[in-house]
TrEMBL record:
SMART domains: G3P_acyltransf. NCBIfam families: glycerol-3-phosphate 1-O-acyltransferase PlsY. Pathway: Lipid metabolism; phospholipid metabolism. Its main location: membrane. This is Glycerol-3-phosphate acyltransferase. The gene is plsY. It comes from Arcobacter caeni. It is found in: Cell membrane. It is a multi-pass membrane protein. Belongs to the PlsY family. GO terms for cellular component: plasma membrane. One of its GO terms (biological process) is phospholipid biosynthetic process. Probably interacts with PlsX.
């Protein structure tokens, strides 16, 4: 019974279960009547929401895309903020962050399918390493406007976070940068198909 009363375990479960909520899919089905898990890239992220919904309702697509980014970012951040209120250890906070991103990428509600983890990663990074994350967000936005390739912009923003955090932080309060790298690895791993298309010059632009 101690397993279910241990506050760390409860937060770990909450992080994964909340992180698994497929907000992009829910929003697209509710407001546009489309199943994004069966269309486009089949990802539950904002980019696929934007692409799929745009085919029938461009104005709604932009709104749903923005809402998806915000909700996906919040689902990891909110669990972290609640955990901070209960003063759990820094190592527990980073474990929560990793599990939230894993939940988004491998959602229990979608048979372990999911998104690429960018927005959820942004949310947890923003709570735990705010300054590097803001730097990465600026890089992400600028690259998105200039390159108009969502995946490449996201990866460049992620690299900016990692590089700036490596200079500005000393062990992330846990004696190591490994938790930050694990989240980055998950996001990059989920982007392997995109990376291959970028190399081949086949990755589609978001116009």
């Amino acid at each position: 019974m101690d397993f279910f009363t241990n506050i760390n375990i409860l937060f770990f479960l909450a992080a994964y279960l909340v992180g698994s909520i497929p907000f992009g899919s829910i929003l697209a089905k509710t407001f546009a009547g489309v199943d994004i898990t069966a269309s486009g890239s089949k990802s539950i992220g904002a980019t696929n929401v934007l692409r799929v919904v745009k085919e029938t309702n461009p104005k709604l697509a932009k709104k749903l895309g923005i809402a998806t980014v915000l909700l996906d970012a919040l689902k990891g951040a909110v669990v972290l903020l609640v955990a901070m209120y209960f003063e759990v250890s820094p190592s527990t906070l980073w474990a929560i962050a990793i599990l939230a991103v894993l939940g988004h990428c491998y959602s229990i509600y979608l048979g372990l399918e999911g998104g690429k983890g960018v927005a959820t990663g942004l949310g947890v990074y923003l709570v735990l390493i705010p300054i590097p994350t803001l730097i990465g967000a600026v890089v992400w936005i600028v690259c998105a406007k200039v390159l108009k390739i969502s995946s490449l912009s996201s990866l460049l923003g992620l690299i900016a976070v990692i590089v700036s955090a490596s200079f500005l932080n000393d062990g992330l309060n846990v004696g190591s940068n490994v938790p930050m790298y694990i989240i980055a690895f998950i996001i990059i791993y989920k982007h392997i198909p995109n990376i291959l298309r970028i190399i081949k010059g086949e990755e589609k632009k978001v116009i």
